[in-house]
Write a structure and sequence with these properties.
Elements lengths: L1 H22 L11 E5 L6 H17 L3 E5 L6 H8 L7 E6 H9 L7 H4 E11 L1 E4 L8 H10 L5 E4 L5 H13 L4 E4 L3 H9 L5 E4 L1 H9 L4 E5 L24 E9 L4
Parallel strand pairs: 1-2, 1-3, 6-7, 6-8
Antiparallel strand pairs: 3-10, 4-10, 5-8, 5-9
Helix pairs in contact: 1-2
Length: 263
């Protein structure tokens, strides 16, 4: 698994660096100073971990440090606003998630237009989530979860890193397709949402595997299913939600964008 991850990061870093070179107009000496990669989530969450894994490879390729800046809040809008207002010289990057696409229709009065103001640079990855519950939760399978939620309406809380984020959308899709009700509890990022799930403050969370695998193996979290179309190679014993809810599939995706020159 480590070798696969290393190969992925090398390829992702190389593709991203190449895209930066080809997408931005600048002098041949670019980059001339350290780059900033803004992340719209707090440190410790899946998005932050991805950025910190990618940063060393990108730094090696570009020959300059890539500094991670966490700007959590409003489902990524705080970080996006900071990037939009930065100089369009390729030294400020935005880690883009599916939340940025959702925010365009979720928020009516944004100070920017994401499509107009952010230029896409590279696609990094597309990954499924896992439906996680606290070990004390009575359901051990998706059908048992659905039955419990239907028998206890409004008593099941679903954490998310914020409205419009990938975990939130995955949970809302599950609610709609499974015909259950869950109370949405939005957090500023994935790390505190996962912490409260481990502490039993909320009952379920659709989380990324890199930040939850340690807790799963330690018995602090119980995975019910993956949101991918098929089972995960990492946890093949865990079923896909689609095995109980036909047609269900949800995944997160990540990319990088830079501010456009709006002059």
């Amino acid at each position: 698994m480590t070798l696969v991850r290393r190969n992925f990061l090398r390829l992702a870093g190389a593709a991203l660096a190449t895209s930066v070179y080809s997408s931005i107009t600048f002098a041949q000496t670019y980059p001339t100073r350290p780059l900033r990669l803004l992340v719209g989530n707090a440190a410790g969450g899946g998005t932050d971990i991805l950025a910190r894994l990618l940063s060393p490879w990108l730094s090696e390729r570009l020959g300059q440090p890539v500094i991670i800046e966490n700007r959590p809040g409003a489902g990524g809008n705080v970080a996006t606003g900071a990037v939009v207002n930065a100089a369009a010289d390729g030294h400020t990057l935005l880690l883009v998630t599916r939340a940025h696409a959702v925010n365009e229709v979720l928020y009516e009065r944004l100070s920017y237009n994401f499509i107009r103001d952010i230029a896409p640079v590279a696609s990094i990855s597309r990954d499924p989530l896992f439906m996680l519950v606290h070990p004390s939760f009575p359901a051990r399978t998706v059908p048992e979860f659905i039955a419990y939620a239907k028998a206890n309406p409004s008593n099941v809380s679903m954490a998310s890193p914020g409205s419009g984020t990938g975990p939130h959308v995955a949970g809302e899709l599950f609610k709609m397709m499974a015909g259950v009700n869950m109370v949405h509890v939005p957090y500023r990022s994935g790390a505190p949402a996962l912490t409260d799930l481990i502490g039993g403050q909320v009952q379920t969370y659709f989380g990324a595997l890199p930040v939850s695998i340690g807790h799963i193996r330690a018995g602090r979290l119980r995975p019910l299913a993956t949101t991918g179309a098929t089972r995960s190679d990492v946890l093949p014993e865990i079923p896909a939600i689609s095995e109980s809810v036909p047609g269900y599939e949800a995944s997160t995706w990540f990319g990088v964008g830079v501010p456009r020159n709006r002059k």
